[in-house]
Amino acid sequence: MFIDIKLDKNTPVYIQLKDHICELILRGMLRSGEKLPSTRELASILNVSRNTVINAYEFLQEEGFIYMEKGKGAFVSDVKVNFQEKWTVDWSSHINNYAKASEELDIIKHETKWKKGMISFKSIAPDESLFDVEEFKKSFLNRISIEGEKILNYGYAQGYKPLIEYLFKYMSNKGANIEDKDILITNGFTEGFDLILSSLTEKGDKILCENPTHNTAIKIMKLHGLEVVGVDMEDDGVSIDKLKEKLSKNKIKLSYFIPSYHNPTGVVMSVEKRVEVYKALKVYNIPIIEDGFNEELRYSGAHVSPIASLSGEGNSVIYIGSFSKILFPGIRVGWILADKKLINYLESVKRSRNIHTSSLDQAIFYDYLSGGNFEKYIKKARKVYKEKYEFAVECAKKYIPFNKLFGEGGLHIFIELNDIKSREVLEKCYEKGIIFTPGDIFYTDNRGYNTLRLGFSRVSKEDIEKGFKIIGEVIKNKI
Amino acid sequence: MFIDIKLDKNTPVYIQLKDHICELILRGMLRSGEKLPSTRELASILNVSRNTVINAYEFLQEEGFIYMEKGKGAFVSDVKVNFQEKWTVDWSSHINNYAKASEELDIIKHETKWKKGMISFKSIAPDESLFDVEEFKKSFLNRISIEGEKILNYGYAQGYKPLIEYLFKYMSNKGANIEDKDILITNGFTEGFDLILSSLTEKGDKILCENPTHNTAIKIMKLHGLEVVGVDMEDDGVSIDKLKEKLSKNKIKLSYFIPSYHNPTGVVMSVEKRVEVYKALKVYNIPIIEDGFNEELRYSGAHVSPIASLSGEGNSVIYIGSFSKILFPGIRVGWILADKKLINYLESVKRSRNIHTSSLDQAIFYDYLSGGNFEKYIKKARKVYKEKYEFAVECAKKYIPFNKLFGEGGLHIFIELNDIKSREVLEKCYEKGIIFTPGDIFYTDNRGYNTLRLGFSRVSKEDIEKGFKIIGEVIKNKI
To answer: Which UniProt keywords apply (chains A, B) (predicted)?
Structure first.
C-alpha cells in the first residue's frame, strides 16, 4: 500500500508522502484507528530518510488526518469519509441567458483556431520579445524591498496610490484636465468598460459607437442588453453627418469612441473631428467613453490630444486607459479617469466585484513606469512596430488585391475587399496554414463580410510576406 | 519659462524636462512653430548635461510635440490645443440603481473608520509579518527564468495551467472527486461568487444561506437582486429543522454555505450536519455553493472533508477556494471547482469581465505552492494564530460579559451580548480608541443588533487584552 507511491522530482518527498497517505485515508484504504508503520519502518520500506517520514507524519497530524499516542505510534484519526451519494445537476437548465450569451459571443471558443505551424494574423497582442524583463525584475525587487510584505496583503479598491499619482501626471501630460477628476485602477480595459456599463446603463438603453469597432466592446455592450447604434467610419474618423443623423433619430444614453488607432481600422480621428464629435454629443448631453487604446503607438504626425482634453474642467468624458496592447498585458492593469463623484461609485462596484486589482502588479508597474523605463521601451517598440507596419502595408499593396486599406499605425491593418466573403477566404487560407480575423465580428450591423483584420505584431517579416502572398493568391482565385 | 521646472530626485531628469515642455505646449505657452532653445543653451540654463536635453527633445519629437529642422533646431509641432469647451454632466442622474446599491452596501465607505493610534478588531486579513517574502521572491525569480517574458503577455481565461493542475491535486487531497470537474482561476472569492451568481440567477430568485453569514456574500447576493433566505445557526452548523422548514416554504434556486470556520461565527459544521444539509438540498435539487473560506486554519479535531466531497462523481456542489485569509490576499488569486460544463460557461463570463487573472501572480503562486512553501507556512501560521485565538478567547471570557461566544478557530471570534446594542458599544469604544465590526452586517434579516465580531489576526496580544478590557468595561457600564 505504501510502496505504491510514485515519486516525482519537483515536489519535496515528505509532501508527496503526506499526500499519498491522505489519499489512502480519504479512500477508506486506511481506516479510523488503524496504526501506521513506525517512521523508521516506513523510511526503510520507501528508502527515504527517517526525517522525511517524520515531517510527513507531523503534517498529517496538523491537518487532522492522524494522531500520535506516546510510546505507541501514529494512528488514523476519525476522518468520516464513508458517506457519498452521487447527485447530478443538469446545469444547462440553470445557466441563465447572460452566461449563455457570454459563451456564444466568446470568439475564442467559436472562431477558427490556430494550430501549430500556422502563421496567425489574428493576434494584436504585443510582441513579448520586446519586453524588458530585466528592468521588470528590478522593479519587482525594488518594490518588494520598499513595501515589504505589506504589498502582499489587502490593498485599496481604488488602486495603489503611487500608481494613481503617476497616472494623474501621465494623463495631464496628454492634455487632460484633472481638476475634480479621479482615477480607478482596473483589470485592464475590459474590466473598466464593463464597470462603466454596469453602473450607467439599463437593459434596452441605446449606446452609440463607431462602426466597425472593437469586438470585445461590442460583446460587452450586447451582454449588458444594450442596443448598439453604429456610426460609419471615414478615413479620419466617424462620419459627422451620419453621427448627427443617428443622434437626431435615437434616444442615446452613452457613447463609446476609439479616437486613436481605432480598432479594427487603425484610423486616427482628426483633431477637427474630435471637436465636432464632442460638440455634437454635447448638444444631446450624451457622455463619452473614450478608449485610449494604442494611443501610445503613434508612428508619425503631430501629437493629438485625447477627446478627454476638450472638456477642460468639465466632466463629460470618461477615459479608459491601458498599456495592454503595448506592455505586459498579462498583468492586467488599466485605469479609468473620470469625474470624482462617478469614480466614487465605480470604486464601490469594483470592490463588490473583486475587491481590488493585484497590489503587487500595480506596484511593479508603478516602479517600472516611474523609473523612466516606459519611455525607453516605447521608443524601441515604436521603431520595431513602425517598421513592421510599413512592411505589412507594402506587402498588402503588393500581394493582396483590395478595395481599400485602412490604418495609420498600431499593430494591425484592416482591409476591405471587393465583393468577396472574407470568411470564404479564411477557409481556403486555413487549409494553407494561414489564419486571420474576419472583419464581420467588428461590425454592429452584420456588415463587413468583405473585410479582414491582419495583426502583425508577433509575426516575423518573412512570415508576413509569405502569409500575405497566400492570402492574395486565395483572393485572386475567388475573383 | 524653462527655468520654472522643479526637479525631483526619483524621476530621470530628461523625463521631467520632456514632461515640462509637453505641459508648456499643451497649455499654449509654447505655440505651434515656435523655436525651442538649442540643446546647448537649455543645458546651460538648467545646469544639466547636454545629453539630458537631447534625450528630452528626442522623446518630444517621437511623441509628436516638436519637430527638428536640420541646421535650424527644434520647433513646436502643430499640436492643436486651443479648443476647450466646458461641459458638465450631472452624473447622479446617470448612475443606475445597481451602482447606487453598491455604494450604499459598501461598508468600507459607511462604517466607522480606523484612525491612527486606534486598536482595530475589524480586520480578518492575515498578519503580513508571517508572510515568507524571501520564498516569494525566489518563486518570482524562478518563474520569470522558466517562463520568460511570455508570462507577461496575455494568458488563458481559465487560468495558468500548472496552477490549475496543482489545485486539482489539492482539492483531491481534500476528498473532492475531480471526475468531469474543471477549475477556473478567479480574482479571489469575491469574483468567484459574483461570476457564479451572474451566471445562474435572475433578479428575484431566492438564495438560501446561513444566518448570519459573510457580509460580502450578502452584499453580492443583494446586488444581484436576489431574495436572501437565511437559516439560523447552531453550534455545529445550520439548524436542520429550520433548513427543512425554509426549503418546504420557499422556491429556492441556489444555496450558499461556509461549512468551515464560518464567517462570522467561526463554527465548523459537523460531518453529520454536512451530510444532512447535503441530503436535504438534494431532495429539492438545489445546488450548493461551498465557500472554502479559512478551511486551512483548523487548530484541532479530525480532518473534515468539504461538502464537495459528498457528491462523489456527482456535480451538485460548486466549491470556491481562496487562500486570501491566510496567504497573499493582495495578489487576488482564488478558484472555482465545479462541473466541467458549468466551468465552460463561467470561463466565458470571466473572459467578458476582465479576460483573465494576472498570469504573473498565478505563476508566482504556483511556484510558491508547489515548492512546498505553503505547508511550511501554514504550520507556522497555525501555531501563531492558534495561540492568539486561545488568548483572545481567554481574554473575552475574562473581560467581556457576553451571552454566548462562538467560534472554533480562524482569525476572529463572534460574540452575542445580552440585550445590548453593539453599535452603541462601538460608539463608546470608538471614543476610547477601539473599533470592531458590529454583527448586524452579517445578518440577512436585520437581527444581530447585540452581536459583534472581533478579528485578532493583526492585533498584538498586548492590544487584544487592552482592547477587550475596554470593550468589557463599556458593556458593563451599559448593563
So the answer is: Aminotransferase, DNA-binding, Pyridoxal phosphate, Transcription, Transcription regulation, Transferase
User: Out of A19, A173, A285, whose CB is closest to B173?
Assistant: A19
Contact of A316 with A296, CB cutoff 8 Å: no
Question: Which residue in chain A has the smallest CA separation from B175?
Answer: A26
Confidence tier at B82 by pLDDT (50, 70, 90): low
The residue in chain B having the minimum alpha-carbon distance to the alpha carbon of residue A328 is B152
Residues of A within 8 A of B144 (CB-CB) are: 133, 136-137
Q: A274 lies in a domain? A: yes
**3 state SS of B451:** strand
Q: How far apart are the first and last CA of chain B?
A: 70
Which CATH number belongs to the domain containing residue A421 in this structure?
3.90.1150.10
Strands A119-120 and A434-435: parallel
ipTM of the complex in this document? 0.94
d(CA A381, CA A185): 24
Whether residue A126 is preceded by a cis peptide bond, meaning omega within 30 degrees of 0, is: no
Residues of B whose CB is below 8 A from A19: 169, 173
Distance between CA atoms of B267 and A403, rounded to whole angstroms? 70
pLDDT at A477: 93
Dig out the grid coordinates for B13 from the structure: 531628469
Q: Which of A256-265, B3-12, B364-373 has the lowest mean pLDDT?
A: B3-12
Contact A85 B278 (CB under 8 A): yes
Q: Compute and round to an integer the Cα radius of gyration of chain B.
A: 28
Record: contact B22-A106, CB cut-off 8 A: no
Average confidence score pLDDT of chain A = 93
Mutate to test the interface with B, among A353, A365, A378, A384 (most CBs of B within 10 A): A353
Query: Are residues B223 and B323 located together in one domain of the fold?
Result: yes
pLDDT exceeds 80 at position B298: no
Nearest residue of B to residue A220, measured between CA atoms? B352
pLDDT recorded at residue B375: 86
| B308-322 core/surface letters (b: 16 or more CB in 10 A; e: else) | bbbbbebbbbbbbbb
- Are B223 and B215 within 8 A, CB to CB? no
**Cβ <8 Å between A152 and B129:** no
CATH code at position B56: 1.10.10.10
**Structural domain containing residue B450:** 110-129+376-478
| Residue B92 belongs to a domain | no
The predicted-structure confidence for B340-390, as pLDDT tens digits, reads as follows 999 999 999 999 999 999 999 999 999 999 988 988 898 899 999 999 999
Average pLDDT over residues B299-307: 84
Answer yes or no: is A89 within a domain.
Answer: no
Among A253, A215, A260, A264, residue whose Cα is nearest residue A237: A260
Do residues B312 and B435 share a domain? no
With the C-alpha atoms ordered B349, B352, B353, B356, is the resulting torsion angle positive or negative?
positive
Please, which residues bridge with residue B58 across strands?
A: none
Q: By percentage, how much of chain B surpasses pLDDT 90?
A: 79
| B6-15, B43-52, B258-267: segment of lowest average pLDDT | B6-15
